[in-house]
Design goal:
Length: 258
């Protein structure tokens, strides 16, 4: 079996335009396998745009043009033989507000399996096992094992966000993208999601967009600072916060703008 490469994602000369506006400018970086990497920077700097490039969601908009290269475990995701369906199975995404489907907890977890698997493979025992494993991985099984028929939207916000993560896991993603996943949560909910991220790293590569500098500092192994569509600096979190190499990074971390 081939060994996973050191880098889960590599980008080279990544440029993106929304119509005539260039939102990303020659973004080149490497994101290591099995760690948590935070994308930081002021609003409008391109963080979420980069995140959405990794599963090519930006292309849903007809006015977007992308040039450059993104490799997921060595394979360019823009190659003509890349299936968008398979790519988005491999690269799951969690959004700012929890968005569970308005169906049962159980059906939320197996939703992806029902879409992507042949019906002949969907034995009830297979689905039951997938639900238990996914909910266990996100720390919800104990609380929800007797409430699997409950409507997912009736759960606490923290539970809803954990369920959205659990929904990704049966498809065995290589990468989990999180776009401000704690912005709708209180302090306790934020702590719970951060603790879950730590438990999932290693098994999954996690890339998170956050405006919260304290969260980036405590919850990520590496940080990449973006400004005006450019990736200014990418380093170990402690190095970027304590001894940034670029004065623009230092200015942002020290609160001089943004």
């Amino acid at each position: 079996m081939a060994l996973k490469q050191e880098y889960a994602i590599t980008t080279k000369g990544l440029n993106l335009w929304y119509a005539k506006f260039q939102a990303l400018i020659n973004v080149t970086t490497d994101i290591k396998h099995g760690i948590i990497t935070s994308l930081i920077g002021p609003s409008g700097c391109g963080k979420t745009t980069v995140l959405r490039c990794f599963n090519r969601v930006n292309e849903r908009y007809g006015y977007v043009t992308t040039k450059g290269e993104i490799k997921l475990h060595g394979k360019n995701i823009y190659d003509p033989d890349v299936s968008l369906i398979e790519l988005r199975k491999s690269v799951g995404m969690v959004f700012q507000r929890p968005n569970p489907l308005p169906i049962s907890v159980y059906e939320n977890v197996v939703f992806g399996l029902r879409i992507h698997s042949p019906r002949s493979e969907l034995q009830k025992s297979t689905l039951d096992d997938a639900v238990e494993k996914a909910l266990t991985e996100v720390g919800l099984w104990k609380d929800l094992k007797d409430r699997l028929d409950a409507k997912a939207t009736s759960l606490l916000l923290e539970q809803q966000q954990k369920l959205c993560i659990a929904r990704l896991l049966p498809l065995k993603p290589e990468l989990i993208l999180m776009d401000e996943p704690c912005s709708a949560l209180d302090v306790d909910g934020t702590r719970a999601i951060e603790e879950l991220m730590f438990e999932l790293r290693g098994r999954y590569t996690i890339v998170i967009v956050t405006h919260n500098m304290a969260q980036a500092r405590r919850a990520s192994n590496e940080c990449a600072f973006m400004l005006l569509g450019e990736l200014v600096e990418h380093a170990r979190t402690e190095d970027l916060f304590l001894s940034p190499k670029n004065p623009k990074t230092a200015d942002y971390i020290e609160g001089r703008y943004g």
